[in-house]
Structures are given as structure tokens and as C-alpha cells.
Amino acid sequence: MRKIIQESLISALLFFGILYATLQVDWMKTLHLHPTIVGDKLSEWVWKLSESSLWKVSNREVCEPIDSLVNEMCIANHIDKGDIHVVISRDNEVNAFATIGNHLIINTALIRKMENESQLCAVIAHEVAHLQLGHIQSAIRQQAVITVLLTLITGNGQSEMLASLTGQMISNSITRAKENEADAQGARYMHAMHLDPMEMANTLETFESYGILSYLTDHADSKERARRIRKMHFSHNGPYRRILSQETWDKLQEACQ
Ligand SMILES: [Zn+2]
Questions:
Q1: Which among 137, 158, 171, 225 has the fewest CB atoms less than 10 Å away?
Q2: Is residue 103 situated within a structural domain?
Q3: What's the number of domains the chain is made of?
Q4: 7 Cα–ligand 1 center, Å
Q5: Are 113 and 94 in contact (CB under 8 A)?
Q6: Is residue 14 part of a domain?
Q7: Residues 10-25: pLDDT tens digits?
Q8: Ion ligand 1 residues within 5 Å by Cβ
Q9: How remote is the CA of residue 76 from the centroid of ligand 1, in Å?
Q10: Residue 41 lies in a domain
Q11: What average pLDDT score do residues 94-121 get?
């Protein structure tokens, strides 16, 4: 019995060891694969897998205000809106994340938790910055290749579990430096929209005060990050404005309950 436990432990360690080592290599480069052809096809396939686990929200009260915020952010910052695909998912986990194919997933629980539109914009700005700075794309291509390899090895039945496992590994591999970069860029996006960029810092602190939330566990060390944002200098760009009316905001909140 002990031997069996030992053997399975060794197998598990080996599996994760190999998986971890595999993630450290840029396979697209090593195998001379052309990222726009092979990587994007694989990414598309992995996206289809991930997409099926989302409970997409399509009612107007939710989609239109979020679309307005993203639209304003793109216009003010000369970002092609066609590059950002927002998906709102009915999910009780307080989370938002950028993923495959320039998708930005926002869970209804996160919207519900936000006290005002600036906080929500701060979260969106941080994730859009990850996409625009290319932090996600390279990691995602890696994930796509690995998922395909793992599916070939283990059979299709395990692919969803493996996709989420590798996804977790990738989100852990976004370095502190990249988080700081996305914060700073996100704050600049907000400033350009005539929103208070310091809301980026406030939002991080608010999240921390809520205790352990998934958004924070993926985005560790929020106090230090808030401190960095507060040290940034912005030219005067006020008075700050509101994008959504109070009524629209209230309806959005209500629809996310
Ligand atoms: Zn991040």
C-alpha cells in the first residue's frame, strides 16, 4: 500500500515537474512555429474549451453600460475597440481576467462588488493594459501548445481540467513587474478618460479590505501596488466626470445580483 502511495506521489511530482519545466520554454520559438498561424489556431481551440465553461450574460442592463465604459476607454486611449472582446459571465467568484483571443472576462460578482464606475473602470483598465502590453498573448500561446500536448497524452476527457490547470499556472507566471506595468498603464488610461487615476490605487486597497478574493490572490501584494500608483504624477485633467448615470449604474448593479 505504502509503495503504491509512494509511486503515485512520484508520478504526480514528475507530471507537475515536467509541466512546469515545459512552461519555462518558449515552444513557439523553439519549434520555429509561426505564432500567427499555429498559435492563433490553437488559441482559438483552447478558447472554445474555456468558453463553454462560461455562463454568458447578454441582457442590456449589464452589457450596454460595460460596453460604454470600454468604448470610452478605447476612444480616449486610441485603442482599437475591435481588439477587445468583452464577455460578462454570471459567476459568484469576484474576478475579472484577460485571456485568449483578446477576451476580457468580467464576472457579475465583481461588478456587484464595485462601489462605483471608477472602481470598475480601474479593474477593466488593468486588464486591458495586460492585453495591450502583450502580457497575455505570449503566455496564452504557450498554454495552447501545452494543452494540445497534454490532450494528446491524456485523452480528450481531461482537457478541460488541464486547460484550467495550465491557465492557473500562466496567471501565476505573470510577474510582479508586469502587474506594476499594467497598473501604471491602467492608471494612464483612466487619466485620459478624465477619471481619477488614483481610483486604481483605491480599488486595490478596497479589494484588500474585503479579505481574500480571487482577484487579489491572482494580483498579490496590493498595498505595495497602491503605493506605487500614488507615487505617479499626472497633469491636471479634472474635473473628473461620470460616464454612466446613477440610474444606469443602479440598474447594472441590480441586474448582477
Ligand atoms: Zn494583472
A1: 158
A2: yes
A3: 1
A4: 38
A5: yes
A6: no
A7: 776 776 666 666 655 6
A8: 179, 219
A9: 21
A10: yes
A11: 90
